Amino acid sequence: MMYESMKMKVENSVEKGKISEEYIKSEEERQILSQYCNKDFNPQSHPSVIQVLLNSSKDKDITGECMPNLVYVSREKRKTSPHHFKAGALNALLRVSASMTNSPIILTLDCDMYSNDPLTVQRVLCYLAVNSGNPNCGYIQFPQRYHGLNKSDIYASEHKRLFLANPIGMDGLNGPNYVGTGCFFRRRVFFGGPFSYIDPENRDLDPNHIVDKPINSKEVLGLAHHFASCNYENQTNWGSKLGFRYGSLVEDYYTGYRLQCEGWRSVFCDPKRPAFLGDVPISLNDVLSQTKRWSIGLLEVSFSKYSPITFGVKAMGILMAQAYAHYAFWPVWSIPITIYAFAPSLALLLGIPIFPKFSLYAFLFLGAYVQDCLDFISARGTFQRWWSDQRLWLIRGLSSFLFGSIEYTSKRLGMATHGFNVTSKVMDNEQSKRYNQGMFEFGVASPMFVPLAMAAILNLAAFLGGFVLVLKEGGFDRFFMQIFIAGFGVLNSLPFYEAMVLRSDKGKMPMKTTITSILLVGILYGICLLCTIVK
Fold first, then answer.
1. Which pTM was predicted?
2. Rounded to an integer, what distance in angstroms lies between the CA atom of residue 10 and that of residue 20?
3. Pair 281, 157: CB distance under 8 Å
4. What is the DSSP letter of 162?
């Protein structure tokens, strides 16, 4: 409530360029809000703003107990200075907190997540205490859990493999990767490896420095503003050897990976009661935009000098390197998924068998899927959610993985690309209602929907055309695998057919996307038909 009230007052002051008297409760509040009234103050360009909202030395709750320190920090931003997105914000917070309290343990938590268990800190201290017997333990990672998921989790937001199954396996080696939220760090980990300490450029940033001045003193606040300035990191090791690491859009994955390469270990803590709960995106476009951003960032690591398959093998051993490489090369799955989405169905429409009569593909397919289903259910999943999970994997391969790979390649070639987009998790009443009913939310004419709609249309045409071909000419055994793949594509595309034909709400597939997809499928089929005629 305190944050929401402050946010409303700040936004009102920025929008109107003056302070509304109804928001003023004290002269101190007037001074705070006055800094937002400057006409040059906007989200992309503004001075640092640091405000102590609660002071543990004087603020108490209704029972008379001291409240914890609560400080609002907004780092300085200028259009001429790179700000490095979330990693830059975290490094600014790391330095500002060092000047004000320099606490030895740091929690990173996304703004849409909240604490769900008061015993969480006690669990963390069992691992990070000085006498815990684990001095190389750098961070404690809790799994991401969400509230408000619909029964089938249609967008596979649980990410069970990413947040639960894989971290359990990695915990048997050097520990899980950092996933960006729900993680407790030793402050010391951001200043070199366990046996290779790197001195910061300012002694006040030393993790062992003791702050002996009041949190709201002039000296402390002045130093905090200095550490939050946009040019502070120039000619320093911040982002390369100190703090959260720059160089990838997935700063969480990259930072955890680099820390473990330096020799730090981590621990996966998965209590029965979720430590933290958060919100999930409820539209397909937001889900895919988030995964596309991950794809670009992962490829930035994959093909850098710190690639897990080269640098990682030397720094942390082949098993941990493979665990990180498994994530790093996720977007490459777009290649086989795209081929299987289009090639078998196009060949079926042209009457060309591409699999042997008696094929092991069907048995391999069923075996892999049965194993995947059992793994998912064993990780506290359900069959319905597993089905959504495998469907979203295919959807990502044809959209976010594919577009992320294209955007990364364009970026490496020096071509213009889209900027960083923050995933929206704002709840709209109508969207929430459709989400709870298990309906896919399209709504916008996103380019990422085009290959998905194309695959849905092509597989339906191939499935029906395949049966007609078999009834006319026979040879079911020759075309069985292609019909099976097309049918499987149709089954996974049911939400797309509903959105393209049956729905009339705001979340339906835009007509522009549907028509474009039909035309492109026709062109693709025509090109393939022409190639067969020429041959």
1. 0.88
2. 10
3. yes
4. I
φ/ψ bin of 358: left (φ > 0), alpha (ψ from -120 to 50), beta (otherwise): beta
Q: Could you list the mean pLDDT of each consecutive 10-residue stretch along the chain, which spans 535 residues? A: 67 65 65 66 78 84 85 86 89 93 92 90 86 81 90 90 89 92 94 91 91 88 90 90 93 94 93 91 91 94 94 94 93 94 93 78 86 89 93 94 93 72 61 87 91 95 91 83 92 94 90 94 90 76
Q: To 5 degrees, how large is the angle CA 233–CA 234–CA 239? A: 50
**Residues 6+ away with beta carbon under 8 Å from 448:** 285, 288, 289, 292, 399, 400, 403
Q: Which residue has the tokens 């249309």?
A: 457
User: Residue with structure tokens 């000296």?
Assistant: 219
Tokens representing 331 are 């977007």
Question: Looking at beta carbons, which pairs linking 522-527 to residues 24 or more positions away fall under 8 Å?
Answer: 524/342, 524/346, 524/454, 524/458, 525/346, 525/349, 525/458
- Residue of 166, 115, 158, 533 whose CA lies nearest to 328: 166
Enumerate long-range contacts of 373-379, CB under 8 Å, 24 or more apart.
375/165, 376/160, 379/160, 379/161, 379/164, 379/165
| DSSP letters spanning 393-434 | HHHHHHTHHHHHHHHHHHHHTT-------PPP-PPPHHHHHH
